[in-house]
Amino acid sequence: MTMTSTPARRMACAALVAVLAASGCARPPSTEMDDEILALLNGTYGPRIVGGRTYTAQPVEANLGPHRFMFPANLYYNQIGPFAGGGVMLAVFWPDFNAAPPGDHPVRSVEDGYRQVTIELRYVGSAGAADYLARDLSERVALPPRWGLTPYAVDRSKVSRDVREVTPDWYVVRDGDGRVRTFISCDPWEYMPNGVLMEGGRLVRSSGDRVAMCRHSMVDVWDGVAVEMSYARVLLKDWERLEPRTRKLMRRYKAQQ
User: What is the pLDDT averaged over residues 222-240?
Assistant: First the structure.
């Protein structure tokens, strides 16, 4: 699949990779939880001033093709709104996959980076939606299901170890008609450890030089919106929670035409 990259998207992805690659000098998670406690008590997030900028949870407009969305500002990746070119990227956090409180973005810890799931939304239209997830699986071998996903591995008899070491693992879910409805590409399990462990309700750095990542693709066929999620591979087992969560956010904040 060929993706169209914008400078803003590249900057956002580079920032995420930089956070996930950091290790020994990581500072502990922020303990400034006043806004989050307030949100739990009142069901809303109040404004917060960080570095001279006021962050809020007020709705900010995003346009995807003919569709208009009013996502809360703190749900956007930058906690401000769409990127300068109109690109829409949201961010939620494990374990509940909720948005962070306003003003959290400038003070996030390395552990926050491990928990982050970025959600890029792109309009492909109803015509493009049908083919968006199409993949050529003929050169791959289906393996036993895992977490409700069907893994597709490269055929070891046809490629060298060097190729296998850099070839992503693929995971697929099909609909009742046999079409791919979910496609996930991850760093290869065999050659790259997770780099992060779930420990006592936290994600902590473990072995390896890198944090293994996944790219999770699906399409909201009704609106013709493609969804591209990126997250640490240790969160792959939660893919079935992420999909309905993302769809719920899109439905909840879609503006009436």
Answer: 96
